[in-house]
Write a structure and sequence with these properties.
This protein is mostly helical and 331 residues long. It is built from 13 helices and no strands.
Length: 331
Amino acid sequence: MTIINNSKTDPNKILPMQYAWARQHYKSGVANNWTPEEVSMQKDVEQWKSGKVLTEKERRLILWNLGFFSTAESLTANNIVLAIYRHVTNPESRQYMLRQAYEEAVHTDTFIYCCDTLGLDPEEIYNMYKTIPSIDDKDTFVVELTKSIFEPTFETADTKNIQKFLHDLIGYYVIMEGIFFYAGFAMMLALKRQGKMVGIGEQFEYIMRDESIHLAFGCDLINTVKAENPEVWSEKFQKEVVELIKKAVELEKKYAYDACPEGLLGINAEQFANYVEHVADRRLQRLGLPKVYQTENPFPWMSESVDLTKEKNFFETRVTEYQTAGSLKWE
């Protein structure tokens, strides 16, 4: 039994399961369940409209990140539903992808919620991928990386096409979700640490938790395809993957310098760029490839945003942490 190209798989029969990691990622996604309306935005609205709390550069940074993520989430959802799902024949992996597709819909809804709450111009936000060159460069790069498996006649039937499939999986899971999102995450959470736009910062924390699970699933999927089809992971193909990731790092660093040229309080643009290099090395390791940058993590607090269990006073707010057996909603 293999995860792709398995004509004997009955997609309606999920038991017995073959890939325990796919089931675990599904359960982790359910445990992190959330919706944007559960996060209070009142203080964000006050800060945004006061004209006193945020500098013009910080306001632009927030708009840029909302602009990039609002379209990027739609792009990732399309990859799952229209392309990857068709080629991955394993039922428990498909179950996770359906969960992920739901989470991408929640992320899209989050940016709708932010735009509506802050009274932003949706035309400005949703067209930034056309008007901001460094955002356009990232989106164009990923679209080019993932176009093969969108072709209606594409099949993972031989070594060359399995390599194309891996190429696109890496473009989507490792580069888009694992690298292109992370400078923006760091910027928004750095603002949150300063007490600025805390509601949006919390939304980004939840999104980053989801993305960490997406990335883990994607790497397990890629590594399983590699293990079951060892001939595709040639030295030449490995070098191609490394070059793709190095190109992605340069695009994300360019975005970091463009979006935050003078940095934030206590953090400069170079540190955001260093963080991207550190993240890229971790992604390479997940694929069994050597580090390229050897860059130390300038933001050790970023891992807390994924790992921290949030505890809220139920007299003040509803519980938005669902790391329990059931989903609690206390008012």
